[in-house]
## 1
Amino acid sequence: MKQLTCTTLALAILPFVTSLGLFCPPTGPVLPPPVLLDANGFDVGPLTDALTKLVNDPDAPFNATINSFSLTITTLEDDIFQYHHTAPKKSEAGVSVVDGDTIYRIASVTKLFTTLSLLLQDGLDIDDFVWQHVPELAGLKKFEDITLRMLASHLSGVIRDGYNSEIAPRAPPEVLSSLGFPNVTLPQDYPTCDSIGTAKCSRAEFISGITREDLVWLPGNTPTYSNYAFVLLGYAVEAATGNSLQDVIAESIVQPLGMSAVSGLQIPEDPSKIIIPDEGDVWATQDFNNWKATGGLFTTPNDLSRFLRGIMNHELLTRAQTSAWLKPAAFTASPTGATGMPWGILRPNNLKRASGTRPLEIYTMLGGFPNYGAYVGIIPEYQLGITVNYAGPGDDPLSRTLLDMAVQHVIPVFDDLARVQASETYVGSYNPGVDGGNSSLVLALDDGPGLKIAEWTSEGTSVSEAWLALFGGSIGMVDVDMRIYPVGEDERWQVGFQGIPDRDVPGIFETSCDGWFNFNAFRYAGLPGDVVHFVIDGNGIAIEAQVPGLRQNLTRV
Ligand SMILES: *[C@@H]1O[C@H](CO)[C@@H](O)[C@H](O)[C@H]1NC(C)=O
Ligand SMILES: *[C@@H]1O[C@H](CO)[C@@H](O)[C@H](O)[C@H]1NC(C)=O
Ligand SMILES: *[C@@H]1O[C@H](CO)[C@@H](O)[C@H](O)[C@H]1NC(C)=O
Ligand SMILES: *[C@@H]1O[C@H](CO)[C@@H](O)[C@H](O)[C@H]1NC(C)=O
């Protein structure tokens, strides 16, 4: 019977070390996110110097003479970094010097606002079909399965830009002919509205652009970027609220977060507050008409940073909704990339951090059209937000360069800071009181994630041996690596037991991480044995560690 119980337990546990020796921590913070003790806690010098060097570098991936830009980094509390560059060559119609209150267009970063405004409407279910809110699509077979969630997650298969990316009207026939396009004219009824210098499309014309085309991919199948998808979401928000998307964004996002009134879909009355690149006037105040919901928003670096703090502090959505929103919806072809709703998710695993090599999750949104672009990133592990804005022809190389520089500079600093603070607060030995028995817990900081359990005994016996005896034997574990990770509430931490096998894990399991499968399996007499509660004193220092399942209340020595 005892044997049977052990076997049953063992079968329920997967080996979760990889043969590459990778750690398998939970995603998100592996230590409490660091707290900057004062406004000067982040040394802005190195990143400022690097950006100044970039601006003066003739080999930079953009031309600083004609591109203005802003970069901000924020914690949950406030910005810890801002850098603004004003291009010497720009339009006199706009601002003369760029700062945190300068108005930029943010192109497709608008999609974050449209998606959030949808998530915030109580009466609107994200799993509704689009045709329930956009009646023109009702009864059309190809739209029957498409939900609002699919549209917001790049999974609807809806066409990208439709007639708006039509090449024929954009270049003279000679040029097109020299590029190998056959001599064919646009069909008579083909809409050319909603473009620079053309009339506004009626909603009917706009919808005709989508209903005449096949889907790019089948609904729910694989991510494909679509501006049309977000216009439809804008229509859905308007139908559900009876308000314009402009008003919904103002009332449900901009005002509650205390962003300035210039942020939103309305075209600024005073262009002198906008940064306008040389030859960029037409794009600075162009009315996006139907395309507003996908790329029409104006905002400032200060406001955009405030917006990210609003998300990270879950001021509009609840904490659980925010956590669920900052998750992937689909994979891309890259093992280090995914798409979300509507996030583009980067998971670089090549960043140097004292806590080891493992993926860093960055939830991003990229935007760009001629002469303007933006890039925002949220890094849940360290609770940091980054904003990039530019005005000029710099395009993606500019925004990518700036986001990369911000991440490369800030993450190692915050990783170190989290480790220093966790070390001061928790690292050390915890023992029972004078007559308390033979239990102990020793927490250390090593070159892996979380806090390493260097030693752990219960009633004189090693906990790792108990774990191996109960869970490790039948699956070939010869050792176990034990770490603790903060839950994010009440000083409660979760133990990760990571079995170490006696041989390489073969084939398709070489890089798999099954840590998530095994939490909360180590229980004893009604209480979890893989949870550690800390008692913190008035100075913020842990004085006791409690393990409910093992009935351990251990005092820090
Ligand atoms: C940058 O733009 C300026 C102004 O158009 C131009 O004179 C200069 O040659 C450009 N620099 C480079 C490296 O392309
Ligand atoms: C293209 O076709 C039109 C008529 O279909 C003709 O008038 C025109 O000359 C052609 N252009 C070229 C460059 O062949
Ligand atoms: C601690 O363990 C030792 C050795 O196993 C044993 O002799 C001793 O009685 C134990 N002390 C308590 C308080 O359990
Ligand atoms: C540990 O302390 C908690 C309260 O802090 C108490 O509820 C619990 O009974 C204690 N456990 C043991 C084994 O002393």
Note: The chain has two domains: 2-25+450-556, 45-159+213-417.
## 2
Amino acid sequence: MKIRILIAILSLPLLFLLVLGGTRYAADCLARAQSVTPPFPSPEFQQRGIPILMYHKVNPDPRSGGLGLRVPPYKFARQMEYLAAHGFHTVSLVDVVDHFQKGKPLPSRPVVITFDDGYLDNYTYAFPILKRHRFTATIFVVAGTVGKTNVFDARVQPVNRMAGWRELREMAAYGITIGAHTLDHPRLTGLPLEEARRQIRESKAILEAGLGRPVEVFSYPYGRYNLKLARLVKESGYRAAVTTVQGLARPGDDPYTLKRVRVMGSYNMQKFITELLKYYYYPPAPVAAGGRRY
Ligand SMILES: [Zn+2]
């Protein structure tokens, strides 16, 4: 018995040392993480490009999908806090195009936040976080699935509810831009041009009728686009369109093939910051028209 008490007394300082060591280790890691954060771009770098962040689902439930398309809300909240704390200002895609084409002034350190597909979780989880910072964003809605489920990718993804008209109208009234993402999310490059035109035009018309406001921006499903499709989007009355090609939106870019910066659910803060800032410094390698998945 006495030996056990002795062991307990002797192990206490050992335990203390272990805890202290652990804390020191954590502090070291934090310091290291902060030191590798790239310095912020100078103003002339900011003039050269604007990040358009690309999200899909913001959802805590792993059953709603993998971390490729799903960012947990606590991570999204930290990312928005980071943007707010570091002087980023959210702007719309039309603001960006007007800035590039007509010199419309933008606030310092502009960023565009976009969500593809129009999931209900954008309203449930992302919208309250955006409101907390008075941030705006753009949601590209699959016009044929408003208030329904993700039938467009149900074979490869779990069933998710899509935002209904009530949620879309409430977000639009706050200042969220609603854009179009076709009628039923096809790969536009694989369709006859007439059907592609219908997808691009009718999704705009349905969303405008449902929202009672103009729909001026478009996102290519799976990032599949070509120059013919970009022309169709322009002729259909849109002001801008986004792809999944990685990079910043830059002056002189075709407003109908804008690049974005993907944010995945697996990213920690360091990775998020690296992705957010890396294109300011490293021009991306040219990517062939046609885009990539997502
Ligand atoms: Zn999509």
Note: The first strand starts at residue 52 and ends at 55.
